[in-house]
Amino acid sequence: MRSIVIAAILLAGTVSAQAQQKPAVDSAKIDAAIAAAFPTAPPEWRPRFDQDETMKVCSIHHNVPPKADADAIQAREKAKIEYPADGNLLGDWKSGERLAQSGYGLRFTDYPARNPNGGNCYACHQLTKAEVSYGTIGPSLLNYGKVRNFGAAETKAAYEKVYNAQAAYPCSNMPRFGTNKVLTIEQIKDLVALVMSPDSPVNK
Amino acid sequence: MVKKLLVALVACCAVVAVSSIARAQDETEKAIEKYRQMLKEDPWSNPGLLDADRGEGLWTTAAGPNKASLEKCDLGKGPGVVDGAFAELPRYFADANKVMDLETRLLWCIEKLQGAKREDLVKRPYPAGGQPVKDLGAIATYVASKSNGMKFAAKLDKAQEKVVVDEGQAIFFRRQGPHDFACATCHADSGKRIRLQGLPFLSEPKEAQQVVGQWPAYRVSTTQVMTMQHRMYDCYWQMRMPELEIGSDVSVALISYLIKSAEGGDIAAPGLKR
Prior knowledge:
By secondary structure, chain A is an all-alpha fold. Helix content of chain A is 41%, strand content 0%. The relative contact order of chain B is 0.15.
């Protein structure tokens, strides 16, 4: 028992030491430094320097926001999700697989655009048994639909996670693909099909 | 050496082809590590050393409108002192009233001693794929190699330096752009990969100490030396940001933060990367 208490005290010590590692930095000065660091940026690129409220909060808290901030992010990001007009959330898993493989789009070497933007899912997630070159920043999505019984509510949740991951996981590392207009609604449907279709290799 | 490389690459591919999928990941990692080990066993096999030699020649050659060499350049240990200078950078330079990393200081010396124009120097500082590192990078490779075997010992304790390190940390965690990416997206956890590429946990001293000292590094995939400033530029490309200016406050702050995180780590420059 005593050792548990000591461990708890030690843990508390670690946490406060970590908190101290975040020095108070003048955020206006950081914003100005960013705005000055890319002098060749064309005017239409300059909005990329700016942070919305969610980016600001996640940056300041090193992606571990306090509960109240996390709740606020979730509510705010959930409100930004748009759904297909016809309510159909499942597209074509084969197109989804191509999107999952492609990291193309929005880099300064990608203009004028030669291809649609990719989702680059494999950079961070395992998806199919066939693709062994996958990253591990995100969880494995192998059998994603199968373990969820291909349920309608789960399909909607998958759509929402791709559209705006932070509505489910505040300060997630995953891009808000729909909200930030990286992917279209049709592309997101294709990715939902990749993880949620029974005939997709993700579930085979 | 080319033969060794080929054997290692073939071994990598063969391993992927024949292994069961479950084992393929580990096997691939092992094969890549074996390939690195083979190149390490013969320290003279690193093609980056050719650029270090070129850099040494450039350091002592009169150049620019002023027809001056860089031999009076003060990298922090006095004019012309190259040995061990990189190990104590970045640092605050009173003459420039700025904290500078190695490449930023070299830019300053090229501008002030040789009379080159800054706007020309920062225009296209990095080579296209397959091209050798440009002159500035070759000089940086030379200077860094003269701290090889030493430990990172930048003090970074002056008020100006502390501010820059703290700003570097804030920039490291700053999310921006259409993908919400920050340096921390990929480099704030242990044991993660992008595809098969392992990612160092750079805000953790133990991991930073292992990798930061390998830059400038020869990259096998692009067959050229990549400097630390170029590395930052490339990360911002991937983060969907515009072209990061060499010697900008952002790149200097990030490099200062990384080197502070790597304090005490071994310098093994030029390193050898994928």
